[in-house]
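Table 4 source record.
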Amino acid sequence: MKFVSLIAGAGALAAAAFIAAPSQAQDYDMDCKVILCLAGGFPQTCGDAKSYMFKRLKKGKSPFGICTYEDGGSYEAVKADARRLSGRSSYLCPEGKQLYYRDDDDHRYRSDAFCYTGKRRVRQGDDYITVYEGKSAATHVNFTTQVTVEPGSAAAFTSPRYYVNTGNGTVIER
């Protein structure tokens, strides 16, 4: 219920921010749309905002810039946690699976990453080997972000955390 009222309030904010003369209908503030779409989980109508966010992330920028109103003011009651991921933290497994991750010796290139449900040690000749059960590919991501709208207020809403692969467009919500 809190989410619905916040999104309704955010919709009113968006309407106020996007009001424009008919000739300027396409000149709305994309940064405002990214904030709303990110908070709402990128519904189907947010394809352009998602694409805009990916372009910013690929350039090493935050997911959105300044959300400006038609009158020139800016909406600043938003906080975004956004950071690049590398190494072990750049791989995700489905719930119920664990991540196996091994760096090469000089820690420059990933040697191996996969997900598994269990492992056991098996004797093979004079040695023991580890057998991983339920193996599947790990999902590679390179960025994570989460947005809080109206932080510190009774109406505050924090989105799920999103994990993004800016190369192939994968977005995972957790």
